[in-house]
């Protein structure tokens, strides 16, 4: 034993540790890692898990805002919600907003990214211009566009020679919110696209060029396919964010629901039920319904994506 | 690990614990400092919802009070107006952390669980500090009484007004000898006034701004004109809807006609109406809180209550009122201090009146100082012609009633629903609301009606 080299001693030891101490190490990792994760877990439990569980519980009660005297009422809140026209209207408004915003923002972000990617001069300036609105708080963006859409002195009607009652007519009010949102948030998706574009190896284009592919062919056969994943990501993020539209809409309508309730979104309706009508139990029930809808959309997307990938293989 | 004492993990845990404990310590220190500051005087914690010009006036009034009452330490907090304020007040009252004094809209008091979330005023104590029932408009005082007890002490009423530009109306020959708008007593007379005013108006400006797309304003205007017609909402027991769809249709048609006859431009339906007024549009219907705005803009203007086109004068009125949020141990010096502060502010509301509100304490209205305020002196009579929402739990400023019925009024004014259909829709909504239960106590308006 004394003549064995250190390597010889170490080798079986290494083999041994690889063979039977993996669970031990995992356990040890849990012991140490647990402490590192703990601060986050505590906050997560306190501000996400607990409110979620509490919300589920409250949705079965007639709790009011004062927090006392809540009684268990079973599924009554959910039953009421199914027949609540205002809730369905609000859901419709959020869905309408999503249907308009998601395709527009995806296409626009892609086009802007292509533009910024291919312009040689002052690229930083373009990047900055397209991205900077995203850095504004929603209240600033909303207020800004409230002024731009002002019927008398606003720039939108002035520049385009229009006479459109953007914020006061129910058929335009949500459109105004959509336009504001496009301007405000396109920068984020733009950045994702730009990063993806810059990640496409130049030699692919070079090879295609040598093979005689023109710019259109290069975009259709190289750029678009290689951006498929990022497009999926952009769409997914946009759908989830758009369904939760709230702040810019209420700011633009001075915290009201817009003309004839045209911009009352699902989140706003939940807020109204909880904090204007004081019906915390009912507000919890409809937010659980909303949660289920959003979760269903997210799952459906994942399922579609997986099917497509498997189909592609 | 045979080593005793501190290992690294224990040290970190200990430090973390110390940090947490330290932060609690600071918190405790904070409240300790408060306690020290107030030990010299009776401390009255007062929550209000006044920001902007109102807030400035309120703070100035509190400063005068502080100077005159060094023994009372007023700790005032201004919270965001509207639902956030009521939410905080309700939670604080339920959790027994309520301030000593608060402010609410009078219309919201009925729905705010008086008796449970609000404590009643000691009328004797108020009288000791110079405030008694006889000094208030009887209808206003009655609205503050629930279950035979006073739950709100009105500070003001704020009303919807018809603002008019004297320069334009002068050109149109619509000013009387007193320099005020000619009296109007019927819809025809009113539209005649609008027709003449329109001729004297610069191009590109509408004749009247009426917040046509805003559910709150449209609802307030409806309440005013519907009350002029003698319309009612519910029976005395709050068990039946007495809403008169014929009268409502008449009002809705009247409001709609401003748009169809081309006097109000739907494009300037919102806050743009006030901008147009400042730029030379002859009329706008606005709350009296716009008085400082228009005075500041150096507009030559007057303001009357909404025109009594249906005969009886009436304009929509809400009221800011002092309330005593529920405290299980309410009483003693602090409670008396709250009474004293509220009584003082109510009696010294001259500065408040400068902001456009009509002081609820009627002796103020007859003072020379108040009567010199213009245009306040032109609309102070609104105190005797208040059109108010019904006294039910779902009413009150920007409450559920306005939120549900307001959009129906808007749909008629803007033309997406016929007035008769909208009137029926309003009745349906009122019926639904009357049958619904107050989430605060699980009672319908009828069940609470016996109490109110």
From TrEMBL, chain A:
Predominant cellular place of this UniProt entry's protein: membrane
Chain positions covered by the region annotation Disordered: 1-22
Q: Which CDD domains does its entry note? A: TM_PBP2
Q: Where is the ABC transmembrane type-1 domain?
A: 91-301
Enumerate composition-biased segments (Low complexity): 11-22
Identify the stretch annotated as signal peptide in this record. none
**Bilayer-crossing regions:** 35-53, 95-116, 128-148, 172-195, 226-246, 280-304
Kindly give the membrane topology term recorded for this protein. Answer: Multi-pass membrane protein
Transmembrane as a keyword of this entry, yes or no, is yes
Which keywords, in A-to-Z order, does the entry hold?
Cell membrane, Membrane, Transmembrane, Transmembrane helix, Transport
Q: Which PANTHER family match?
A: ABC TRANSPORTER PERMEASE PROTEIN (PTHR30193), DIACETYLCHITOBIOSE UPTAKE SYSTEM PERMEASE PROTEIN NGCF (PTHR30193:SF41)
The protein in question is named Sugar ABC transporter permease
Source organism of the structure? Streptomyces poriferorum
């Amino acid at each position: 034993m004394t003549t064995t080299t250190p390597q010889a001693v170490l080798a079986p030891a290494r083999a041994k540790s690889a063979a039977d101490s993996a669970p031990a190490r995992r356990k040890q990792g849990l012991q140490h890692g647990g402490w590192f994760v703990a601060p986050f877990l505590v906050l997560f439990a306190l501000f996400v898990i607990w409110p979620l569980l509490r919300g589920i519980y409250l949705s079965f009660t007639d709790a009011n805002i004062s927090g006392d005297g809540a009684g268990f009422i079973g599924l009554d809140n959910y039953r009421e919600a199914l027949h609540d026209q205002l809730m369905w209207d609000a859901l419709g408004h959020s869905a309408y907003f999503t249907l308009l915003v998601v395709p527009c923002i995806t296409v626009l972000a892609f086009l802007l990214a292509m533009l910024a990617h291919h312009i040689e001069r002052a690229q930083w300036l373009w990047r900055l211009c397209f991205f900077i609105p995203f850095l504004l708080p929603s209240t600033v963006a909303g207020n800004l566009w409230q002024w731009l859409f002002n019927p008398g002195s606003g720039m939108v009607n002035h520049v385009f020679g229009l006479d459109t009652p953007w914020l006061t007519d129910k058929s335009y009010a949500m459109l105004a919110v959509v336009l504001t949102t496009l301007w405000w948030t396109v920068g984020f998706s733009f950045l994702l696209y730009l990063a993806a574009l810059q990640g496409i190896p130049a030699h692919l284009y070079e090879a295609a060029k040598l093979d005689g592919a023109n710019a259109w062919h290069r975009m259709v056969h190289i750029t678009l396919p290689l951006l498929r994943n990022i497009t999926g990501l952009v769409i997914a993020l946009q759908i989830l964010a758009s369904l939760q539209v709230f702040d810019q809409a209420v700011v633009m309508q001075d915290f009201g629901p817009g003309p004839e309730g045209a911009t009352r979104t699902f989140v706003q309706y939940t807020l109204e039920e909880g904090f204007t009508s004081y019906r915390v139990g009912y507000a919890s029930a409809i937010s659980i319904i909303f949660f289920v809808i959003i979760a269903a959309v997210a799952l459906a997307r994942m399922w579609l994506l997986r099917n497509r990938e498997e189909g592609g293989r | 690990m045979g080593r005793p004492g501190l290992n690294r993990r224990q040290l970190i845990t200990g430090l973390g614990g110390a940090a947490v404990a330290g932060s609690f310590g600071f918190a405790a220190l904070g409240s300790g400092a408060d306690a020290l500051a107030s030990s010299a005087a009776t401390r009255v914690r007062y929550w209000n919802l006044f920001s902007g010009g109102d807030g400035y006036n309120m703070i100035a009034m509190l400063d005068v009070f502080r100077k005159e009452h060094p023994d009372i330490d007023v700790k005032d907090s201004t919270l965001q107006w509207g639902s956030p304020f009521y939410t905080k007040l309700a939670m604080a009252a339920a959790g027994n952390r309520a301030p000593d004094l608060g402010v609410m809209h009078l219309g919201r008091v009925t729905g705010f669980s008086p008796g449970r979330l609000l404590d009643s005023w000691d009328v004797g104590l108020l009288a000791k500090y110079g405030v008694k029932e006889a000094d208030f408009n009887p209808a206003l005082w009655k609205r503050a009484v629930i279950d035979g007890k006073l739950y709100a002490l009105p500070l003001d009423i704020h009303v919807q007004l018809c603002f008019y530009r004297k320069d334009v109306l002068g050109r149109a020959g619509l000013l009387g000898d007193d320099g005020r708008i000619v009296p109007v007593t019927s819809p025809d007379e009113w539209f005649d006034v609008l027709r003449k005013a329109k001729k004297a108006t610069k191009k590109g400006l509408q004749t009247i701004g009426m917040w046509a797309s805003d559910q709150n304003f449209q609802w307030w205007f409806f309440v005013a004109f519907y009350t002029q017609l003698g319309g009612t909402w519910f029976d005395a027991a709050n068990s039946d809807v007495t809403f008169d769809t014929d009268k409502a249709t008449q009002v809705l048609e009247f409001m709609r006609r401003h748009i169809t006859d081309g006097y109000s431009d739907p494009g300037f339906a919102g806050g743009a109406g006030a901008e147009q007024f400042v730029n030379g549009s002859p009329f706008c219907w606005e709350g009296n809180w716009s008085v400082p705005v228009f005075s500041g803009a150096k507009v030559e203007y007057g303001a009357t209550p909404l025109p009594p086109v249906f005969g009886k004068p009436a304009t929509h009125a809400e009221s800011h009122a002092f309330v005593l949020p529920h405290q299980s141990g309410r009483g003693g010096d602090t409670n008396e201090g709250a009474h004293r502060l509220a009584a003082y502010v109510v009696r010294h509301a001259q500065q408040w009146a400068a902001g456009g509100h009509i002081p609820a304490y009627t002796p103020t209205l007859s003072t020379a100082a108040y009567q010199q305020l213009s245009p306040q002196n032109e609309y102070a009579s609104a105190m005797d012609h208040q059109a108010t929402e019904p006294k039910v739990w779902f009413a009150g400023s920007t409450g559920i009633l306005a939120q549900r019925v307001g959009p129906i009024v808007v749909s008629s004014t803007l033309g997406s629903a016929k007035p008769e259909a909208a009137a029926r829709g309003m009745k349906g909504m009122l019926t639904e609301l009357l049958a619904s239960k107050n989430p605060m106590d699980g009672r319908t308006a009828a069940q609470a009606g016996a109490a109110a």
